[in-house]
Design goal:
Its EC number is 3.5.2.3. It is an enzyme of class 3 (hydrolase). One of its GO terms (molecular function) is dihydroorotase activity. Keywords: Hydrolase, Metal-binding, Pyrimidine biosynthesis, Zinc. 34% of the residues lie in helices and 16% in strands. Strand 5, helix 4 and strand 6 form a beta-alpha-beta unit. The longest helix has 16 residues. Helix 3 runs parallel beside helix 4. With 342 residues, the chain is of the alpha/beta class. 47% of the residues are buried. It has a single domain, classed as TIM Barrel. The structure holds N-carbamoyl-L-aspartate and zinc ion (2 copies). The site of one zinc ion has 5 residues, from loops.
Length: 342
Amino acid sequence: MQKLTITRPDDWHLHLRDGAALKAVLPFTVRQFARAIIMPNLKPPIRSVADAACYRDRILAAIPEGQQFEPLMTLYLTDNTSPDEILRAKESQFIKAVKYYPAGATTNSDSGVTDILKCDRIFEAMQQVDMPLLLHGEVTDNDVDTFDREKVFIERHLIPFKQRFPNLRVVLEHITTSDAVQYVLSANTIAATITPQHLLFNRNALFKGGLRPHFYCLPILKREEHRQALLQAATSGNPKFFLGTDSAPHTRTSKESSCGCAGCFSALHALELYAEAFESVKALDKLEAFASFYGPDFYQLPRNTERITLSKTTWRVPDEVPFMESGLVPLGAGQEMTWQMV
Ligand SMILES: NC(=O)N[C@@H](CC(=O)O)C(=O)O
Ligand SMILES: [Zn+2]
Ligand SMILES: [Zn+2]
């Protein structure tokens, strides 16, 4: 196959940041995707409908002249979010989900939820108005091994949670383990996003010939058997699994540090990365539904009608793209790719 034409996809998990960073990265996403679910973990986080409205305006203002893009906004859940804010969010129309970060689990999650049991009134409101809940599904307990934090979150928190709120629609974000795949398959009203890094790399990538901070994201890359389970899920044609890049830009200096930030930047070449992953298991025919159909179906939004084309061309991922004061290193910098968006 030399060309692959599919419906224009959407990114169901994206970090755009703000200010100059937003202006630098947004054009990459706009080139590939029609819409994206915008993560609210700014400093300070997007906690109210008013915050989300202002942030949405800043995103709209940063869209390059003459191009189309629809930011789908989210609210950052805290211990103090009120059920009324959920009702207002639903009425706003432009807020499509509420994001749950366990406090301290990942980048800018300090104001996240300290105990999932404290938020039952909010979850009741969400279930009532059918507002989806997006989960960063990791426990933060120091006595739980970093590589087990997703699995333990599912066992300790998600399974009991889903029993309390069976009708609340949930997305388990950026899944990284076969345990997550199994759980999502077994439960109702739950879907999952899968990133390009978790489909293409296992944890060896973090240590190849030395410490590789640009492969460090959360949840952290896992063993090969988990990567295989994710690849199988993504290419299975099951609508519970759809595209969410988790493209999370950090400056080169903040990643190449004695305490480097978590996050991989993939907005530059997200579709190409997914195409490589799908082709590796001869499943390119499953890419369109994963990238362009199952996400809007879950969010009850219309599928896009425009089409985009990838062509079989060899090219090299640049070492860096311009970003803030120290540049931005894309996922797989320097590696050869065999698909390119036209
Ligand atoms: N995935 C990451 O490693 N980082 C994300 C936060 C997140 O999605 O957990 C970020 O905002 O940098
Ligand atoms: Zn996360
Ligand atoms: Zn993320």
